[in-house]
Every structure is written in C-alpha cells, then in structure tokens.
Amino acid sequence: MKLEPIIGLEIHVQLKTASKLFCPCDNRGELLPPNTAICPICVGHPGTLPVPNQRAVEFGVLLGLTLNCTIARHLTFDRKHYFYPDLPKGYQISQSDNALCTDGFFEFDVPGAHVPRGHVRIGIERSHLEEDAAKSFHQDGETLVDFNRGGTPLMETVTRPDFKTPHEARIFLQELRALVRALGISEGDMEKGHLRCDANISLRPVGEETLCPKTEIKNINSFRSVERALEYEIKRQTELWEADSPPDHQSTRNWDDVAQRTTESRTKEAAHDYRFFPEPDIPPFDLAELTATMREKIPELPAARRERFMREYGFSAPDARQLVDDDALASYAEHVMSEFFDWARTAAPDISEDELRTRAAKLISGWLLSKYLGILNDLGRLFTPTIVTPENFAEFLTLIQQNKMNSSLAQRVLREMVEHGADPSHVLEQMVGGDTAPTVEVAVQEVIATFPDQVAQYRAGKTAVLQFLVGQVMKKTKGVADPKTIADTFNQLL
Ligand code: ZN
Ligand code: MN
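That is the input. Now the predicted structure with zinc ion docked in place:
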C-alpha cells in the first residue's frame, strides 16, 4: 500500500504594532520587566472597554491581500471562551465566522533538484485577527504569570491541507517570514515566538479521497523542527498503517526537539466548546475604504525582489534569497550597491556596466554576506544598518576594488569598522601609516634591485621563486597590495 501525507499548517504571526490590540499598552512587553506593560483593559478588569488598534487592522488586511484572500466587508470580533490563568477575562477576543481574510492562496518556488514540485500553490483557508494570551512560567512547583504579552495582536493563518512534503511546509514558513518582514508587519522570528506554527498531518492510501483523522503537532520552535517533526510523524504513522492500526481519532502531540520525536499530549481530547458569540463591546467597522487604501500600499514582495536582485545586480539565487529574507539587509545591500556604482562610474568609467555589476555582486557576496555577517556573528551581534553605514561599506568595497588593500588587511579593516564604527580610509591609514607604504610598482622595482640572484633564477625559468619575491613586496607594502597584482607587476617588469 502506498501512502501519501496530507499536511496543513496553522500559523500565529505576532504583529509589531506600537501598542496592543485593544488598549494603549506598550506592545514590546517581552523586553520589559514582567507585568509592567499592562492596564485594566488587558488584564480584564470589569467595566473596561476594548478599542481596536487601527494599525493592527491595517497589518492584517495587508497580510490578507498578499495571501490573495477576500477581505471581509465589516470587521467584527467574537469572544472565544476558555478558562486558564493566562486569560484573565475568561475569553479571548478573536474572530469566528467572519474572519478578516478568507479563501486565498500563496505560491512559491521550492529550490532543489529532487523535490516533487518545484512550484507550489497552497490554499489559505482563513487568516484572522485575535489577541494573544499572557505568558505563564512553571518553576519550583509554582506557576507565575506575566501579563505583558496579554492583548498583543496576532494574525492566525490556517492553510488548506495542500502540502505534499514536510520540506514544502518548511519553505512555506520561510516564505511567510520573508513576506511579513517585507510588509513590515512582524519580526517573523520563530525562535522568539513572533511566528508560531502548529502542523496537522494524516496519511491516506494514494488514490483515496477521504481524509483520515489528523494529528496536530505543537511546540514547534524552528523551521528545522517543522520539517523534522513532520518527517517523524510520517514514519510513525506509516508504521501504524503497516501494522493495520492507523490513527482512528484526532490527537495532539508535542514535538520534543531534544529527543527529536513527538509524544502524545496529555491535554484532554474532548471537543472544545468555546461558546463563541459576537463581542458586544466592539461595533462592526466598515473595511471598504481601509482595504482600498492598503491595496495601494503593497510593497515589492520577496519573490519579485529576489528575481529583480538576480536580474538587476547579477546575484546568484542563494545570495538573492539570503538578502531578501532579511528586509533590512536587502535594503542595505541596495544602498551599498548604488553608492558603489556612483563611485565606480566616476572613478573607473572604462569598466562596462555588466562588468561593474558582476564585480559588485561578487564583492557583496564575499564581503557583506560572508565576512561582515561572520564578524557580527563572532561578536554575538545582530545586523543593523547603522553599525557600518552603507556609505562606509561602499567605500570599503571601492578600496578593495582599487587594490588598496589585500584580503587579509581588508578583514582587519572591516573588523575595526564594525567594532568602532570608523570610516574605512581612516582605519586603513592608521593601519598602514598613511602614505608611507610605496606603490606596488615602486616596491617591485626595489625588490628586483635588492634580490638580483632570485630575479636571475626566475628569469631562468625557476618560477617557484616568484612566491618569495611577491612576499618581499607584500612586506614593503605592509599588506596593502594583493598578491595577484604584485605577481602581474613582476611579470610585466621582468
Ligand atoms: Zn493594556
Ligand atoms: Mn489562535
């Protein structure tokens, strides 16, 4: 019997509004001391009235439009009742039947040679707005609650069960992260819980139409775990099918990232009765005008931007993906490129535009994506556009392009720039002592004069000696010149 997996995802995206969904409290409560970003509204005191945050509604509509959803004509909320210490009102303000966004789809490419589908279209059942619960901590046999997160705006997106492989589910989540970052509506960081995912999976014999009872996997904390947890479930459920006892009821399982397996969750499986009913404290709001306004505000989306980065700048597909995954990094790279082009068009007008693009893409790939991000990683810092300004980074690249420093010196200069925010010419001057280093050509002539024996050997065909001569020039130029330029100069002069 051949089995196929049926996979769907439920994703909560935390919106980065300034204030919470229904009150003026600071929405960055995770950075503040426990229970300091709270007020009578978000801790559910009787007699308080929630007021919807317009920015959160705008963010939700923006997400829905880019997921090709239909946007509800009116915004309405519902109360979803359950009892838990992190929910002081005894209900969550969410959306039931009239979800903000419904019936959309999202398309993306799945890179890799051996994937069953290179281009995937996933149906979006719904995406709705709701408030987050508070956060509880269990320690020393006690439960503590921090209400800072209570009332944070979330968009909950439910996909249709259209994924064919765990890998597709992972790529979808990564695409969703790139999307919410490009829209500027969320940090989209899974590790920080800004993007939370539950995965639903069942198997069925190929060719059958009915769906079998699904298993919901919770506690997935990274893109890698989404894929691993689903792979694990496929294996586990395949064994059940092969033993002639496929899952016969819906269940919930937790992903254990340490043991790399799922375990049956002890929460009771009785169908929940949330007693949904319309939130009476928030009157319906006509969304027609807001939706039309947001439609005009859709920025360039990640897939289009990646494509443009490859076409316009000549980036490789993986480089374009890495840049565009982080909106701030992508904008930074574009700024650096434009500064670099401005310089090059004046300083080296003989270089063709094509050649210039190729060089710039190579420099960005090596020096921004590899070296610079590597240095930040070493220092335990995250990328921000202000550590090294785009102007300074472009200047740094032009110094490399002009052969004013070789690779190892450039790495030292870059590190200095990162640590002290200095401009590259200044750092370089301090490192090599201003203009005292001779130019490559002068240094090569000096070395030819100082080492006549080695020069004679080289001329006689003993090419290995060139390395020694190049080394002498490197010493004289204090590491400013790169070995290839020096070797070329020798070849010209000898
Ligand atoms: Zn509040
Ligand atoms: Mn939810």
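The mean pLDDT is 91.
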